[in-house]
Amino acid sequence: MARQLFWLSEEEWARIEPYLPRGRRGAHRVDDRRVISGIIHMLKTGARWRDCPRDYGPYTTIYNRFNRWSKQGVWEDVFYALSGSSGVVSTTRVSAAVDSTHIKAHRSAAGAKGGTSSRPLAGLAADGRPKFTP
């Protein structure tokens, strides 16, 4: 079974390249185009970051770049360059969610097994009314 990897086209890359951070100190940054293609691939497939194909580079690099640029607001500018909309509904730059996560609950988490939990009250009088102590 052949994997379908995502790669940015020349036109897409030309549109988003001006919005990427430049002039950062530290170690030499790996190929941005490869990393961004990997990020988009992972977001499209919904897989774990650890399952990122090796063609994009180390999964830690892919995740760290996504996380760091999310905090800096870089993705809003990139999405606007590609789609004409940042995807943020609010007028203030609070946060933007790109990833969707769900948690599968255990089948017994809802308490379905064992029937209903309604029991008669222990403090009932003989005629069925609750007892009150003044």
From TrEMBL:
Source taxon at top rank: Bacteria
Signal peptide bounds: none
Pfam families per the UniProt record, alphabetical: DUF4096
Location of the Insertion element IS402-like domain: 8-79
Region (Disordered): 107-134
Name under which the protein is recorded: IS5 family transposase
